[in-house]
Amino acid sequence: MFNSHVLEVIAGLSFIFFLVSVFVSTVNEWISALLALRAKDLETGLKNLLGETAPSSSSAQPPAPAAAAGQPQAPPAFNMATAVLAHPLVENVSPMKLMEKKVAGPSYLDAKVFSAALVDLLVPGEGQPSLDQLRQSVSKLPNEDLRKALLPLIDRAGGTIDGARKNLENWFDHAMDHVSGRYKRRSQAIMLLLGLAFAVALNVNTVTATLHLWNDPVLRDQMLKQEQSAVASGGVCTSAGSDAATDLDKQREKLKCTAQLIGDAYSESAMPIGWTVDARELWQHTGSASVVVLGWFLTALAACLGAPFWCDLLNKTLGLNARLAGAKPKPSADDSKT
């Protein structure tokens, strides 16, 4: 059964992992925003969904049929994804690029906005189109892959245009689940590399940190005070926040808060990290170098779990440890009689 000694070590490690993960997740989001990774993934997902060919081979595809006089413009043949992204419903909610005064591609697209833009492209004009109009427009698409994907969705719409829109929204959500999964896997890889770089730079070694915390009660006490101070001030939960924040001002504030939190924790508490004399001697010892590398790798893996996970574990551990430390033994039967 866990005792306070073990909980104090867990709390100390959780606080270290929290500091690493909140820094790593913040830098990861900066990289994602600067490189527009979310927007690029969304664009790639839309092109796969709507059967848009690569630009290099688009010239070999037949052009869209020209609209007759007095008739609305025909929908795009093989550039439907590009047309959806350029639609006013989508473009009006797209953010500005970080380094340029241009509109960037959206990093997120609501399913209802997607279906509205797609139906408007397929049946251009004012008013609510009918299901027959939508089916006729889709059946004339020269893009065979897109036509085969859309017609079953329309046929299973229950005879209403609203049913068709709902099917389009479900189709889009299902495809975006795969896009989100691919983005998360890449983010995990980036966070692992960032966590490993952070661990090496500051020598955040899980193995040696655990040993120091286990064997040094003074160190555990100092770290517990630092953790309780950070939790009481609200800095921990504020910094943990959402790992998916994309607003530039929020990212800047989060990075500033992270740097301050790490600086305060490093200066006010004798944390078992850093390139101390003992740590350098351990690294130079051939037999111990592999242990150091293992400790760095474990730290990087812990950072991939994310700051919210370690913040929650830290709060729970501190609360349980406080209850155990403050628990009083139940009065005996003899005491109750007196």
Quick structural gist:
The chain contains 16 helices and no strands. By secondary structure, the protein is mostly helical. It has two domains: 177 residues, no CATH class; 143 residues, no CATH class.
Structure in words:
The protein is mainly α and 338 residues long. It folds into two domains: 4-35 and 182-326, no CATH class; 38-180, no CATH class. Helices cover 70% and strands 0% of the residues. The protein is built from 16 helices and no strands.
Q: Looking at the structure, what is the overall shape?
A: elongated
**C-alpha termini separation:** 34 Å
Number of helices: 16
Estimate nothing, just give the exact number of structural domains.
Answer: 2
Level of helix content? over 70%
How large a portion of the residues is in β-strands, by DSSP E? Answer: under 5%
**Poorly predicted tracts of residues:** 54-72, 237-246
Quaternary class? single chain
**Helix/strand structural class:** mainly alpha
Total beta strands:
0
Helix and strand run: HHHHHHHHHHHHHHHH
- The residue-averaged pLDDT reads 77
Over all CA atoms, what is the radius of gyration?
Answer: 28 Å
Largest sheet: none
Write the layout of secondary structure elements.
Blueprint: H1 4-35, H2 37-49, H3 80-86, H4 88-91, H5 111-122, H6 131-139, H7 144-155, H8 161-202, H9 206-215, H10 217-233, H11 235-240, H12 248-268, H13 277-284, H14 286-304, H15 307-326, H16 333-337
Helix pairs in contact: 1-8, 1-9, 1-10, 1-12, 1-14, 1-15, 2-3, 2-8, 5-8, 6-7, 7-8, 8-14
